[in-house]
Amino acid sequence: MVSFSILAAAVLAVVPGTFAAPSSYHETIGKQLQARQGGYYSYWSEGSGNFGCNQQGGGKYSCTWSGQKGGGFVAGTGFKPGGSRAVKYSGTYDAKGPGYLSLYGWTQNPLIEYYIIDSYDILAPGEPWTHKGNFTFEEGTYDLYTSQRVNKPSIEGTRTFTQFWSVRTEKRVGGTITTGKHYDAWNKAGMKLGNHNYMILATEGFSNGTLLPSGSSSITVS
């Protein structure tokens, strides 16, 4: 799939506000903000189209998007460092086309980009996915996958890295994501994480060939 990774950079000033898509890819690199309430907010985008996200404080953010071509965005509120915790969230998510509502994060040594997907319209993977099984617990049933990205943006610059996926079989918007349960299931499937960097409850939209995304979200993380 086309997964637009959030790139590492210095933390910028803490000013909740609207971030419209900048005119060039380089202007978007590393836009990461520390929310006033102690949460971690991150926003990254590239390409053309109408999309923007608003960090509202208190663990809440909202996004709208439409008509993206050759690009996409990822935005969300969460934690740095990430790791094993119960992430509670609520809100609305109405999406058409490729993209996800997910718990999204990174580890290093090894460099892993991971998704725990709760809702989506079209998954539209670009790279081949390898199915690694499934698991069920009190929060639901998830299918497990891995994939690889070659020479793509990451929190360590342009790198080749592995992606881990948990995809919920029954979509939902709101509830609790107990990340440690997914880490344990991945480990049992031979999917080894590294040292945790950040993780966010993310909205992502991206173009994939002729498939163009549109939608809106309003999410609060606790």
Automatic annotation (TrEMBL):
GO BP terms in the entry: xylan catabolic process
Keyword Protein biosynthesis part of the UniProt annotation: no
InterPro entries for the chain: ConA-like_dom_sf, GH11/12, GH11_AS_1, GH11_dom, Glyco_hydro_11
Record keywords: Carbohydrate metabolism, Glycosidase, Hydrolase, Polysaccharide degradation, Signal, Xylan degradation
Ranges of residues in domain GH11: 27-217
PROSITE patterns (alphabetical): GH11_1 (PS00776), GH11_3 (PS51761)
Protein's recorded name: Endo-1,4-beta-xylanase
